[in-house]
Write a structure and sequence with these properties.
Blueprint (H helix, E strand, L loop, with lengths): L1 H7 L4 E6 L21 E2 L2 E2 H12 L4 E4 L4 H4 L4 E3 L10 H11 L4 E6 L2 E2 L5 H8 L6 E5 L2 E10 L3 H9 L5 H7 L3 E4 L7 E2 L3 H7 L1
Parallel strand pairs: 1-4, 1-6, 4-5, 8-10
Antiparallel strand pairs: 2-3, 6-9, 7-11, 8-9
């Protein structure tokens, strides 16, 4: 239904799965090189869950920001790696790479470790976003700044932010007047950051 709503108003978006992190909090003596997006959760890698969700939301294409194991991630979308000039810039480097590569005017961003996604996430973010103003999700648990809808026109400004030394996601969002969209479920958009999180939500 969300895909039909988007098409009715002639707004197109691609999806970007952020899976370029180091998964440090998921590592252990038994799994020293853990790559969270490829770890099985409820029978499938997290990347598979995220890809299916973005498709169901209406994404025309799915991109995956991944800096390790690109051949494995390619099973779920087109892999896009960070620009070498932004290799140490954190998740915003992945967002920039996605904005540069996306074929649609809009990019719907989702971290690979986010589960319990609201069914109306893309639609509500889209309703609040503008070409010069991204929209991101917020619950009573706090902001989820990387669950966002951003227009490709924001790419140049994001690159300038990174080139000037900016790294904080919320700092960039403030710089372009981003708007928060509130979701009432405190457990919506839970991140699986640690083994304890994994056990709780499995």
């Amino acid at each position: 239904m969300q895909a039909a709503r988007w098409r009715d108003v002639s707004i197109l978006f691609d999806g970007l799965i952020l899976a370029g992190g180091q998964s440090r909090r998921m590592r252990s003596a038994d799994a020293p090189e853990a790559d969270k997006g490829l770890m099985p959760w409820r029978g499938e890698p997290l990347a598979a869950h995220a890809c299916r969700y973005l498709r169901a939301q209406g994404a025309d294409a799915v991109w995956i920001s991944a800096n390790r194991h690109p051949e494995d991630y390619a099973a779920y979308g087109t892999v896009v790696r960070d620009d070498p000039d932004h290799a140490q810039c954190g998740p915003l480097a992945g967002v920039l790479a996605g904005l540069r590569r996306a074929r649609s005017p809009w990019l719907f961003v989702l971290p690979v470790d986010v589960v319990r996604q609201p069914g109306d996430l893309a639609a509500r973010l889209a309703a609040a976003a503008r070409p010069d103003r991204p929209a991101y999700a917020r619950t009573s648990d706090g902001p989820h700044p990387l669950c966002l809808m951003a227009h490709h026109d924001l790419a140049d400004g994001l690159q300038a932010f990174l080139d000037a030394g900016g790294r904080q996601v919320q700092g960039w969002l403030r710089s372009c007047g981003a708007v928060a969209v509130d979701f009432s479920d405190a457990d919506a958009l839970i991140n699986l950051n640690t083994p304890e999180d994994w056990d709780r939500w499995s």
